[in-house]
Specification:
The structure is a single chain. By secondary structure, the protein is mostly beta strands. It has six helices and 33 strands. Strand 27 and strand 28 form a beta hairpin. The longest helix is centred in the first third of the chain and has 21 residues, at about 5-25. The protein is globular, with a radius of gyration of 25 Å. The two termini are about 40 Å apart.
Length: about 650
């Protein structure tokens, strides 16, 4: 262990020990933990008496305490989720959930989808700034959210300001020239409140040249309740980010003038009105604008450049979703709604592309007694490009008296083609307007057990999925006038997720998970050769067979916390693009340590002062989540926060 790591660990231990001595002088706080309502799972805040689908919730307070600044890193602790990045900070990051494709998870911010049409989303610049919580629903969710919610939904909620007024100013810095600064305010009450956040992230990156990245994030939310029957929430988020990328498509560091820029604006208006004692109306307006520029310019003035490019693109989504919730009985909620969305995209040198969709959905959510819950939903999407597509989901859960609960669900989902797949008109990329959506059918069943009144909880979920009509690129169509994209491939992805949580004992608590995944290509389509994306009978690319994560938390008192997180990623199939052959990427394990200690507590106008420390990749493990692209080594970040 290096001297810097030893000193940092010693500092963390000393801070925690000091907090323990302070806490010993005070009586322990009496706390009660309630199971959170996962709104994303049913689009209502009704609490089922028994679990229906598999969900996870990560609070913003948890993320800030551990020094986690990106959604990609936050999701690394969620079962069934793999979010690899192509090298250094700011490089493209993908999202694989339960073995699905990287565009099979819909990501929303305050109810607004931020994926490109067709599901693609680069997670690199999606941060946890001013976040209240992140909800993750695993399994098909198209019945509620339409296209792209094939293997799951991730929804990020901005802080709404309830719970008193708070102002915070903080930052940290350290290895690789990294610095993170943020200022935030949130406050108000039930009638009026909100939050505002500004954050600045910078790093020089892990490579010797052309590797700096930056991200500036501005966010805010205003909630108003003009009367007891009405609520309105306005949420805004703007991201201005850029990354210099020195690696080629093989991961070799050789380029001194390649970069990617991104501007993303997200806005939502969420309004609700209680019309009668039983009937509520709800409307959500959403808008996302994304502007990107990706370029590889000559490394020197006048230099010849065979593969240089400078591509600008924009994606715009405008949507309105309206629904009615009717409480047919105290134990049965009926929901009916409709969605309209307009999608538009453009690339430099090409005409703008657009399409519209209309959707109609209905859902029943009910409880029977104090032990049984159920839901059933159906949806029809009408897309101007591919026409009608229907989806459904049914689920049921039962809670036994001995702390055991069981649940099962089944449903289908779909992903619309991307603009390029359906409409491209380039020399080697001709779109196919006759493409059908990619589709899936899946089911899951699970059991959970609470032991000693919640002192220990263990859950196990089995899931099975069949993917059909996967869109493939065919580089050798029958003639030059034929399209290059077709619905050809098929695959399966089955697995088991195990989770366990303990209550706090003497300040110690543990959260751990394990996922075993088996994927198989059942139809390779036109793919052939050693470097093929799909190979009959073989595994899908970049899906680890095993995923495991464990976080041990130690809280000696209210003024300090220490976190030890271990993450294991098993072997997976990838492609060595330098030689264009399939390879098996080796497994790896990383260990992160984080801690914080409140040196001075808030008193009147005197702010609380909290010291923070984070050691990412403590043992400097050398690994590549994407084959050929080395991940960051050990990083030490030290900082401080002021809170009023």
């Amino acid at each position: 262990m290096s001297r810097s790591v030893a000193v940092s660990l010693a500092s963390l231990v000393a801070l925690t020990a000091a907090a323990g001595r302070v806490a010993a002088q005070r009586p322990a706080a009496d706390t009660t933990t309630l199971t959170p309502v996962v709104v994303t799972a049913t689009r209502t805040d009704v609490r089922p008496v028994a679990p229906l689908v598999t969900t996870s919730v990560i609070t913003g307070d948890q993320l800030r305490a551990q020094g986690i600044t990106t959604v990609k890193d936050a999701l690394a602790q969620v079962p069934g989720v793999f979010a690899p990045q192509t090298g250094s900070y700011g490089a493209q990051a993908s999202l694989f959930v339960r073995g699905g494709e990287s565009d099979y998870t819909q990501v929303l911010v305050d109810g607004v989808p931020v994926n490109d049409p067709g599901g693609f989303l680069d997670l690199a610049n999606l941060t946890t700034d001013n976040v209240d919580r992140i909800e993750i629903v695993r399994g098909p969710t198209s019945v509620l959210y339409g296209s792209d919610a094939v293997t799951g939904v991730v929804q990020i909620f901005t802080r709404d300001g309830r719970g008193g007024s708070h102002f915070a100013l903080g930052g940290d810095g350290g290895t690789y020239g990294t610095s993170n600064l943020d200022a935030s305010w949130y406050g108000g009450g039930a009638a009026v409140g909100g939050s505002v956040g500004v954050a600045r992230h910078r790093t020089d990156g892990i490579y010797a040249f052309n590797n700096s990245s930056r991200s500036d994030v501005y966010s805010g939310l205003l909630h108003v309740a003009p009367d007891p029957a009405t609520t309105v929430r306005l949420a805004l988020r703007f991201v201005n980010a850029g990354a210099h990328i020195p690696t080629n498509s093989f991961g070799v560091v050789e380029d001194s003038n390649q970069f990617h820029l991104e501007n993303r604006f997200i806005a939502s208006v969420d309004a609700g009105r209680r019309l009668t004692e039983r009937l509520n109306a709800h409307v959500v307006l959403g808008a996302t604008d994304e502007h990107t520029e990706s370029a590889d310019l000559p490394d020197a003035p006048g230099q010849e450049c065979d593969f240089c490019y400078n591509a600008r693109a924009g994606v715009y989504r405008r949507s309105v979703d309206a629904r009615l919730d009717y409480a047919a009985t105290p134990a049965l909620l009926l929901t009916g709604g409709a969605t309209y969305e307009r999608q538009r995209g453009h690339e430099s040198g090409a005409d703008a592309i657009g399409r519209t969709l209309r959707a109609y959905y209905a859902q029943a959510l009910g409880n029977v007694g104090r032990a049984f819950s159920y839901t059933a939903g159906a949806r029809v999407d009408d897309n101007s490009q591919f026409g009608m597509f229907g989806t459904f989901r049914v689920a049921a859960g039962y809670r036994l008296r001995d702390g055991t609960s069981v649940h099962a669900s089944a449903g289908n989902a779909f992903k619309e083609p991307t603009f390029d797949e359906s409409s491209a008109n380039a020399p080697f990329s001709r779109g196919n307007p006759a493409l059908r959506p990619e589709r899936t059918r899946s089911w899951e069943a699970g059991v959970a057990q609470d032991i000693a009144r919640g002192a220990l909880s263990v859950s196990l979920t089995y899931f099975a999925q069949r993917f059909r009509d996967l869109i493939q690129y065919d580089g050798a169509p029958p003639d030059t006038a034929s399209p290059n994209y077709f619905n050809l491939a098929a695959a399966t992805a089955n697995g088991v997720e195990v989770e366990t949580h303990t209550a706090s004992w003497q300040g110690l608590s543990l959260a751990a998970s394990y996922t075993r995944l088996q994927t198989k290509v059942t139809d390779a389509g036109v793919d052939a050769g050693s470097g093929a994306t799909f190979v009959d009978g073989q595994r899908l690319l970049r899906r680890p067979t095993d995923l495991a994560s464990a976080t041990l938390t130690y809280r000696p008192g209210s003024r300090a916390a220490l976190f030890f997180t271990t993450t294991y990623v098993g072997n997976r199939v990838d492609i060595d693009f330098a030689n264009f052959v399939r390879v098996e990427a080796p497994s790896y394990t990383t260990v992160d340590v984080a801690g914080n200690f409140t040196v001075v507590e808030r008193h009147g106008t005197v702010p609380a002062l909290t010291l923070t420390a984070r050691l990412a990749n403590l043992f400097d493990t050398h690994y590549a989540p994407i084959f050929g692209f080395q991940a960051p080594g050990r990083a030490i970040l030290l900082g401080a926060d002021l809170g009023w």
